[in-house]
Amino acid sequence: MDGLERGDPRRLGPFRILARLAVGGTATVYLGRSRGGRAVAVKVLHREHARRPAARARFRDEVLIATAAGGPHAPSVLDADAAAAIPWMALEFLPSATLRDAVEHTGPLPDACLRHIAAGTAEALGALHRAGIAHLDVTPANILLTSAGPRLIDFGIAARGRSSTADGTPGFMAPEQVAADAGPESDVFSLGATLAFATEPDGELRALIDECRDPDPTARPTAAELTRRIAALTSAASQPGDTELPTGVREVIAGRQLAAADAPVPPWTPTRRQLLLGVGVVVPSATGALVAALAQDTGRGPSPGASRGATPSAAPPLSPSMSPSPATPPSELRFVVTGDGPLTDLTYWVNGRHTTLPEVARTWKKTVVLPAGTDSVDYRLRFTVHRGAVEMRVYVNDVEIQEGKDPSVVPQELTTYPFESGLAGSADTTNPVPAPHFTPPAIHVPPIPSFSPPAIPTFPAPHFTLPSFPAR
Predict the structure, then answer these.
(1) Segment Disordered: which positions (predicted)?
(2) Average pLDDT, the chain
């Protein structure tokens, strides 16, 4: 678990974002907390992928498949917004370790423990296959080991029916998956490869793993058959307690559960605006300095008992020079869109409430005053661009927290119009984080060189002299 970085969201939907759990090639998973205090895992598509229609469509499919798969075999989907400018999905948080982490942490797992994991994972695959879903990425990194048994995660490339793409993790893909013709039988092959990674089993379990990894898909057992056969092996060979995870893995899971329950809230510091307005900010370790400052304003020395770190027994009386600090002013959210040409179908959302404008001219600006006491804001902006480029900026209390440009890198002459654009995010209004400024590299499209055919050389016409013949 890592702290948040600049540019990470602070709130998505009803969830406050607390820390990073994992970063993948297309998405980042954050630890979040609901308003009621429930820990959740929030998967957020990377911004560069959110601009690609194919990636957005795949994320939308992942949300639908993960929702169908959620339950005893996979984390449940609690909420999602696949249509957001930056799509996200909130899932049940499961204190766990991946099978890959467990093997790397403790070495190969005991056979009895591995049989228990294999049976649970095969059962999960059987439930998916009955629903017409193929996972297509069964790997040690996508099996979570929890106190209640294994759970399958990451349905990013899952498919309903068969898949005609060669996506997957090398080393765990079935031959037919590499050939872009994958289905439920491919998951069985991947499970066999995963079990072989986790240990070096002997006897019947080794024979079963070899069957799963048969190059011929029709020769492999189904997930349901595999579940029955592994369960029979487990009940016949195991003693009570044999199926438990190794002590080191259980300690890792317990530690992650405690860390999630006590995840630190991202630090808050007063903004320059609040300091200039005199909004009271008291650092506990500096209470003595505060007493001295108050005493200087009132013309009295500190009380004899006041010392560094001590709490004054009573606040000094107010004098004309010590009027109460002004109340914190309401926060403001401001959108600014500049460019050339009009925008159509512009909609902006602020904390769930939206407004739609059929057409606006550039430059377009909108300031929204937030109710007093609002400590965070979720926002979203969407519109249609018909020509040219557009630049977007979002400010909270005059601090620029997000910027964007569309098209960002592709030259305008290669852009297809009209196209939909926008941005979304969340911010802490008490301490907005300035947006990092990034200048995308310019792409130079060289002009097509002109072509002049080479000159065709000319040659003088040959001169022939006809011979003369004597007259007859």
Answers:
(1) 296-331
(2) 78
From the list 111, 137, 154, 428, the catalytic residue is 137
Which secondary-structure segment (H or E) carries 98?
strand 97-98
Model pLDDT for residues 131-162, shown as the tens digit of each residue: 999 999 999 999 999 988 899 999 999 999 89
Catalytic annotation present for 210: no
143 forms beta bridges with 152
Neighbours of 301 (CB within 10 A): 11
pLDDT tens digits, residue range 237-258? 555 555 688 888 888 888 888 8
Structure tokens at 42: 């929030």
**Strand 39-45 versus strand 364-369 pairing type:** unpaired
Residues 6+ apart with CB under 8 A from 88: 12, 13, 42, 43, 44, 45, 80, 81
CA distance 260 to 413: 49
- Could you give the C-alpha distances from 150 to 78, 352, 407, 456, in angstroms and in order? 20, 36, 44, 78
CA dist 348 and 423 (Å) reads 10
User: Which residues touch 302 (CB under 8 Å, ≥6 apart)?
Assistant: 288, 291, 292, 295
CB 109 within 8 A of CB 246: yes
3-state helix, strand, coil in the chain (%, to 5): 30, 25, 45
Q: Are 182 and 163 in contact (CB under 8 A)?
A: yes
Q: What is the pLDDT of residues 155-203, one digit of tens each?
A: 999 999 899 989 999 999 999 999 999 999 999 999 999 999 998 766 7
Residue 369 in contact with residue 330, Cβ under 8 Å? yes
Predicted pLDDT at 384? 87
How far separated are the first and last CA of the chain, in Å rounded?
118
- Token pair recorded at residue 147: 């106190």
Q: Which residue has the higher pLDDT, 304 or 418?
A: 418
